[in-house]
Design a protein that fits this description.
Length: 298
């Protein structure tokens, strides 16, 4: 199964430097409309860092167990390895910029700038609200990066990298200013929850119970359930169901297995229950999803 802790990060551009073609890491941008997209319904983490620009609507972001209300115009900063999930209305639209950390890009400025990313959530808040002047400046940089990547005119790689450096410089300036109104939120227990999620992902067909999951965390069921709810925004068993349904959807669109076999492989022992939960989650039955996918690929 695809681990949502190992999602694809940035892309590469081939450019000529010193008479030779070299691969240069470039940001990857995607638009996410709130719905049943795995990146929306499942908490996840990854090795790159991410900037979300709220292009429309409003919602709730959960990062390392802290909840943030977001609306159009806000910017969300997510450092590497931090557990995050977004919930919102049908009108919520995010533009997600996936970026490598500076030290991965081998720039001369890398060492000087990379530390600011790890200060997000400490001296720099995870969410920059649209009323803050820093938010407007960063939004301008992101829109310029988006335009350059879309048009790909001569020299766009240099402009994108220069804007990335500007973005990190603006964040570094922000981090150097004391903020009496910002207090970092505690993130105790996040690593425990991440380890339990890893085990869930690797053993979806196992007959998990709340007791068995809490044993993995070496906590009582009630304490583990409260920790998981606070960190992820949903109960452990509800998260497990979403994880299983997402895996089932992957199999339905990538294999020829029978639906009853996919249900069992995903951890559902009752086909009618699987069909009901699947339709509630994806607004279509398993067979309808498979048919729709086949039509799109035809």
């Amino acid at each position: 199964m695809i681990r949502y802790s190992d999602l694809e990060s940035s892309g590469h551009a081939s450019v000529e430097m010193g008479g030779e073609q070299q691969n240069v890491m470039m940001p990857r941008i995607e638009q996410i409309v709130h719905g049943n997209h795995p990146r929306v319904t499942l908490a996840h983490w990854h090795s790159h860092w991410e900037i979300n620009r709220v292009a429309g609507g409003n919602g709730l972001y959960i990062i390392n167990g802290t909840q943030y209300t977001i609306q159009q115009g806000d910017i969300v900063l997510i450092p590497p390895q931090q557990l995050h999930r977004v919930c919102g209305t049908d009108q919520l639209l995010l533009e997600a910029f996936h970026l490598e950390t500076p030290h991965q890009m081998n720039g001369w400025w890398a060492e000087d700038m990379s530390s600011v990313i790890h200060r997000i959530g400490q001296t720099v808040p995870h969410v920059l609200y649209r009323s803050m002047p820093q938010c407007g400046l960063l939004s301008e940089v992101l829109m310029d990066v988006k335009q350059e990547l879309a048009q790909r005119e001569f020299g766009y790689v240099s402009i994108v990298q220069a804007q990335y450096m500007r973005l990190l410089t603006l964040l570094s300036r922000y981090a150097s200013r004391p903020l009496s109104s910002y207090t970092p939120a505690p993130s105790r227990g996040v690593q425990t929850v991440k380890e339990v999620i890893r085990v869930m992902e690797g053993q979806l067909a196992f007959p998990w119970t709340l007791k068995k999951l809490s044993d993995l965390a070496h906590l009582s069921p009630s304490r583990f359930s409260a920790l998981f709810q606070q960190t992820v925004g949903t109960s452990p068993l509800d998260y497990l169901i979403r994880l299983r349904l997402t895996y089932a959807a992957q199999l339905l669109t990538s294999s020829n297995e029978k639906i009853i076999e996919i249900a069992a492989e995903s951890g559902f022992r009752n086909l009618s229950n699987f069909n009901r939960l699947f339709k509630d989650h994806f607004q279509m039955s398993p067979s309808e999803l498979r048919d729709t996918n086949e039509q799109l690929e035809a």
